[in-house]
Design brief:
Elements (H helix, E strand, L loop, with lengths): L4 H13 L2 H8 L3 H15 L4 E3 L4 E3 L1 H27 L5 E7 L1 H18 L3 E7 L13 E5 L8 E14 L1 H7 L14 E3 L7 E2 L9 E2 L4 E3 L2 H9 L5 E4 H10 L3 E2 L9 E8 L6 H18 L1
Parallel strand pairs: 3-4, 3-5, 7-10
Antiparallel strand pairs: 1-2, 5-13, 6-11, 6-12, 6-13, 8-9
Length: about 300
């Protein structure tokens, strides 16, 4: 027999409330029913999850490990149910979205018209920032973040990923020559970020590894500024595909050192604080954005 959601809910509720009787009251069940659910769960798993004494309940090591997984399962089910409710509603109200300027310009802005047609009652408010913001302080409903996430207090939804490429304009390559090896970059003008240093790790294979730490000849805080500099022939740059797709299609930027390039994909996540009052507005925006990113990946 497989574990049921009722058994998982009973287990988590007992842990959270501190007793079987409190969990029974919380779930609207009898104490004996909760106790039987716990016993069935332990029998199925063939482990002891809780040590029961007359005064308290204590998680075993196995119980502690299982609790984390049980929470994830229950949260996933809750989110799935919430999504189904969202589909039956007509989302409305203000939705504040924050993203780095390049992502806002190249990805979000082109999708706004289609989104507003589908959800005319949502009032979009778009904010750009190249720094990580505090969502509560900035009164932001959802933020788009590219790269590894650091803030574990936020709920994160993966939207896709984007490849990094090393690029230069035809004019720059004509004037300075095309680098044939990674070592050749030492004699070229390299365009990089002022911070963080991780953005100046280029996905190039060389004798010491698969990432090359570059020292920029010219730095900027914004990827969009670096893109414009590259288009103007100021040097060689490493940028994500979502910024340069149209440039590459037109031939305004050309990939260099393709043979030495390691396929590195930056993850794209939407992050938000869980708030059921905003769930429908957030969910439909993320559904729409995610579906469009899938088409362009």
């Amino acid at each position: 027999m497989k574990t049921t959601l009722d058994e998982l809910q009973a287990f988590v509720s007992v842990v959270d409330s501190g007793s079987i009787s409190a969990a029974a009251e919380q779930l609207g069940q009898t104490a004996s029913g909760i106790s039987r659910a716990l016993s069935r769960l332990e029998d199925k798993l063939e482990v002891t999850l809780l040590r029961r004494t007359t005064r308290r309940l204590e998680l075993t090591e196995e119980g502690q490990a299982f609790l984390a997984q049980a929470r994830k399962i229950l949260e996933a089910v809750e989110e799935a149910e919430e999504q189904m409710k969202v589909r039956r509603q007509k989302p409305a109200g203000r939705l504040r979205v924050n993203a780095a300027a390049p992502f806002m310009l190249h990805v979000v802005v082109p999708l706004v018209s289609g989104f507003r047609e589908r959800y005319p009652q949502i009032q979009l408010e778009l904010h750009s920032s190249d720094q990580i913001i505090d969502l509560l302080e900035q009164r932001t409903d959802v933020a788009i973040r590219i790269g590894a996430l650091r803030d574990s207090t936020l709920h994160a939804r993966p939207l896709g990923s984007n490849r990094l490429r090393v690029l230069a304009s035809p004019a720059y390559l004509k004037n300075h020559g095309r680098p044939e090896t990674v070592d050749d970059l030492a004699s070229h003008s390299l365009l990089g970020f002022t911070q963080p240093d991780s953005l100046n790790q280029w996905p190039l294979r060389h004798p010491l590894g698969d990432a090359l730490a570059i020292s920029p000849s010219l730095s900027a805080s914004s990827g969009e500024t670096l893109r414009q500099l590259a288009l103007a022939g100021a040097g060689i740059v490493c940028l994500a595909d979502f910024m340069t797709q149209a440039d590459r299609a037109r031939g305004d930027l050309l990939q260099v050192l393709q043979g030495a390039t390691v396929e590195v994909r930056q993850p794209i996540h939407a992050v938000y604080y869980r708030n059921t009052a905003l769930a429908s507005r957030i969910a439909c925006f993320l559904d729409y954005l995610g579906s469009q990113l899938d088409r362009t990946d």
